[in-house]
Amino acid sequence: MPSFSWRLWLGLVLILPSSLAAGEASSLLQDWHDVWLFRFFLNVLGYTTIIIPGYFLITYLKRINYLQTGVDDLQTGRGIFYPVIKACVFGSETKTGLLDDVSLAPRNDADSGSSARQAFKLVFCAAGLQVSYLTWGVLQERVMTRSYGASTPEEEGEHFKDSQFLVFMNRILALTVSGLWCVLFKQPRHGAPMYKYSFASLSNVLSSWCQYEALKYISFPTQVLAKASKVIPVMLMGKIVSHKSYEYWEYLTAALISLGVSMFLLTSTADKHPSTVTTFSGVVILGGYIVFDSFTSNWQDNLFKHKMSSVQMMFGVNLFSCLFTVGSLLEQGAFFDSLAFMTRHSEFAFHAVLLSVCSACGQLFIFYTIAQFGAAVFTIIMTLRQAIAILLSCFLYGHAVTMVGGFGMAVVFLSLFLRVYARSRMKAGRKVPQPQVQKV
Fold it and tell me: Which chain regions cross the lipid bilayer (predicted)?
């Protein structure tokens, strides 16, 4: 009997510490998973499991001169994968200069139709852009800042935390819409190697993740103003990536935008986010969004040197975005957790789907508006949309803006309109290329 008691105590001594250690490790892992920087690195680690094998495969195919050996195999009936590999890795060897867009050719004033018809098209484009992106903005803030499942105001409910799943939802629907568009409407013959889309896709996924994640730490009006100021890093990235030069008025308006944003950020009340650490996290995430988005637009600008349409660009980028996000979600086990959240909360499922529909439709309205009226009209419409989005967010979610902060907002939007006016005057004097369509 004493021997049995001794063995029992020995077993408890050995088992309990290991059980407690396992529980502490699980709790520690959960705590780390609540840190945005840890989630960011987890996502990037998931993307590298796709990028690194792809890099070695592409390097190997180029090193063995697959284009020649693939032709030989194709002639003997063994190279059944040759067309796919050629399109993904090599593409066509020639570049065609500027964008040759069949389905979205630049407008011709001589064939523009009656004034009433043009006015109707303008109202249609403006309404489509405003409805799509205003709804998208309201839903974005609702999903990331409010809980689901609370039947009374006293209940806390359950918050959705995985920003990457929302990015995947947006991209899978945009991929479907752009794919159908490419099938239904004639497109130019594609020339760029498909793998080149992966660079813009990776930066696009990271910028979208930062955009959703930032709403956990900052207000929506702050995010909108920060996005309006992205012309500054876009210019810097343009000098670094594309070696572009800019006019004096572009530097002036960029400085005014910086001044306006600073006025808003330094004077806004912090009633919802009182922690300086939290505010700093939001600023860092927003900085990441602006940097990644600036790289995306400049890389896409270089890709347009190949023969492709805007919708083909949309399809290629979203194809790799879906590949990156679904791979990372499955590796983390977050994909099925997010689906389970959707089944528990039907309201969230509706919001997530509608969010994706608005994003995809908004992209098509962007292409159509620029094709019909040019980039200047499009920029004016989207600048107005940003101002309305801030007012709508303040009305629906109770964000407070000080008088100095409101003046800073006015400086930002006045600077944006000044950029449109200056660019229009330049176009009246000399022919310049149309600016690249950017994600908003």
Answer: 37-58, 119-139, 165-185, 248-267, 273-292, 313-336, 348-368, 375-398, 404-422
